[in-house]
Amino acid sequence: MLTLRHSRNWFVIIGTVFVLLALTACTTGKGEVVAEINGEVITKEEFYQELLKQGGKQLLDRMIDQKLIQQAAKEKGVTATEQQVRERMDEMKEQFGGDASFQMYLAQYGITEDMLKQDVRNQLLIEGLLKPEIKISEEEIKAYFEENKDMFGEPEQVKARHILVETEAQAKEIRAKLDQGESFEELAKQYSTDEASKANGGDLGYFKRGDMVPEFEEVAFSLKPGETSQPVKSQFGYHIIRVEDHKQPVPAKYEEKKEEIRQQILQQKIAEKMEPWLNELRNKAKVTNYLK
Q: Would you say residue 169 has pLDDT above 70?
């Protein structure tokens, strides 16, 4: 499974590739003007030559790699189906927090889903070619599980609301209103300066240790469900915290996480093997570079 970091790196690379390809395809007339500055012109040919200097080698190297991957896959009978491509694209969308965020990143780098699909297809071909060479033992999986138990288990979590104000005097005044029975949610909507949560009555949802600043966290995790804190000072101002739920940590179970771990190890090993494998393909191939 692709990580978010890898996905974003792909966008930078793919965006460069497809912009260069599109512009290269348009370079037909040497005298065609692409810009004019105070009577002086920049021709399409001049623009093209500058593009080659800045990104031409990277673009050509990547296109050569793509051809080598496709040729190796054809030789081995490895394919990437439309369903596999769709599933991988869906994983990437999920990592970006949904389709809207995903489309925003695509637009940012000037590429379309169809462009990205081709790169995803090549990645799937690489995985299909390298996977048969990779062996993962039960001992490896168990060792990975033991080393990363915290990552696979459910951490201790608190669900809370807060009201954030600038001064201690304001916080004490609001705390007094709460003591008189006024609604926490309504007071948050009226007084809180936290724009991200005030509309929802100060709701912060569930969070684990390390998600909040230390002063806030210490108090939130010390309260019982239904309890409300006195004013708590942090770098953001003064908080009044109300805890609504407190979940204890749930240890991970090996059998439930075994397959997930296997896939993580597999992806790590594929990433480690990919560049040496590509270098081997490059060294064996007959490649003539006519780019000047």
A: yes
